[in-house]
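Deliverable D4.2, example record:
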Amino acid sequence: AMDETETLQKLYELLEAKGFETRMEGLALLLDLCKNSPKLVTTNIVQIFDYFVLRISDTHKKVKQMALDVLAEIIVILEDAMNPVIIRLVEGITRNLNSKDPGVHATAVNALEESIAHLDKVSLMKEFSHQWSQLSGQALLDVTEHITELVEEVHARSPEVVQRYALPVLWSLLENKALPVRSANVRMVVTRLASALYEVMGTKLK
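Output generated by the structure prediction step:
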């Protein structure tokens, strides 16, 4: 128990360090712990995320990009054990989807895709929908695309979740919420969401 406490303390100190390279050491240590001591991480996941989430929005591009890469790997390793931090996880990822740095944007999209592949899809749809109203630009389109991906599977489990969380996204898009997005893809993204909803709801969509 003493060793575990010391390990966690070391992790927190590294993640909070002033030097960006030291913070990156903290990220490497976290990934190592997830691989070799997953129980230690899952038992303390909420507290660990208090420190880790700050690195997802780090001011240093290299740290931020590494944090998103590490997050994608952690999601694959821990899967459902991430449920207690799913809200902060989605917030951290979506905050980086509008990054002008192509590397940061790509790692954020990758983390988003790993979350869909490995985390609870009903919970994700709820969180994507909550975050959606606060998004703009490319992030708005990225999250809409991923809500569309979730529609079929979530509807099979909980039709009411799709109606409560995915439908309002479609209505907002049809009311031109996405017009400020400078992208030719807006119409395509809206069409895909509408088609996915029609596929599972049929004429009930009307």
